[in-house]
Structure formats: structure tokens, C-alpha cells
Request: fold
Amino acid sequence: MNTFSRLMALAAMGACVLAGPCAYADEATPDAQKILAASDAVRNPANPFGLSIVLTEYRDGQEADSNTLAIYSKLDARWGRYRTLISYVGPPRDAGKLVLESGTEMWFYDPSSEASIRISPQQRLLGQASTGDVVTVNLAHDYHAIAATSEDITDGDHTQRHCYKLGLAAAVPDATYHRIELWVERSSNRPVKGKFYSDSDRLLKTAYYRRFQSELGLERPTEIVIIDGLTPTWVTVMRYSNYAWRDVPDSWLQRDYLPRFRPISESQSR
Reply:
């Protein structure tokens, strides 16, 4: 099956109710917040790191647009939140643009105007991928896990997975989504699937976490397929690569530093 066929198959899954998901009660009530935190640890390295993300937008199975980003991220232990700098690498029209997420503030910097403007986590980067999807997020900080039930679902590779289904409610005013439904594999704490909702409780998108590989000491998802909540043939794929431990100076994570930032080379990895 080629790439477009796989994407369309996933889109079809997002457009309908999957036949036969098996939900059942646990003998012991699991701690939903602990499950969420364990899933965060699978997605996010604890030490400062960098990686590359290629975003590709597909409409009706055809590639519509793409861009490449370099990510530099660092956990702020005081608050339990990550601070992230996004550097646009390509296409050439966007190279040099930056997005900074630090604390409760998010800024976009355009070198052509030498201006930085305040933006929200809901701001779209490409297709269905928003800035809040790209920056490193500890969901256990931004959301309350209010329920954990056991459910068998089909993952992005059409494989049956035994999962906890978590209901997440926004716990901070700047959370990207009003609420989330997240399926986490019981045996590994891997995120499998997420459904993301607006303030009006409209389904915005469905995401499948795929292609787990050993990166920085753990098996982490290296691909996320995002399907639009209204138009299932509108699909955005986020592909992760070039994971590396990096020094991320605090100076990089300041709005005033954005005009002086220069991307670092691979040789500067720790």
C-alpha cells in the first residue's frame, strides 16, 4: 500500500465509528493522571533536546504543501512546562521565521519585518498542525485526566491495541484544546490515538501516533497523522527525525533574543 493509500485509509477510519471497539471495566480503578504523565514521558525527553519536523499537508490524497522545522526544547522544572523555540528551515520563503513558546506566552518572529507578534497555540502552522501541536507539551500539566476506562481500539497501522481511554479537561487558560480524548496503550504507555475538541465541543481533529523508534533512550512516535474533524480527506502528517541532546541556553528562550538567533549545526550536539 503506497503512502497516499495509507493516508486515505486512516482518513476513512477518522470519518466513521470503528466497528466493535471493546470497552470494559477494570477490577481496580487506574490513576488517570499517572497514566497521562507516563504517556508524556514517552513523547517528551526530560533533558534539553532538538529535533527536526517535516509537516506535509494532503488534500484528497494529493500533497498540497510542506515545510521543515527545527525544534529546540527545554523543560522548565519550576513550572513543569517545556519552553520551545521553533525555527523554520524550509521552504525558502519561510526560512528564518521563528516561533517561541515560553511560559504562557507564544511569539512569532518574521525576519523580513524584524517584528515579533503575540500568537495563540491554536494558530495554524500548516494544514491541521497548529503551533500547539508542534511545541513540546506536558499534557499532564495542561490537562486534568478525569477518567480512565479500558478499551480495545485499532491504531494507525490497523492493529488492535489494548488501551486506556483518558478524558482530558483543560486545566490552564492557555491550553490548546478545550478537551481531549486520548488512548494510551496499557502495556507500554504509548499514545495511540487522540481526538481534540474546541470550546464548543466540536471535533477539530483526530491524531494517530505511529512509527515508534528508539530515540534518546526510549521508543517514541516519529510520525503523527492528523485528520480534520470535518473533512477526513484533509490530512496532515508530522514526521520527526534528527533527535539529539542539545544545549538550549535560556537566552534563546527570550523574546528579545529572537532577532539574534542563529540555528546551530549538527556538530554542536552534545
About this structure: The two ends are 39 Å apart (CA to CA). The CA atoms of residues 234 and 260 lie 37 Å apart. Confidence is low (pLDDT under 50) at residues 11-27, 266-270.
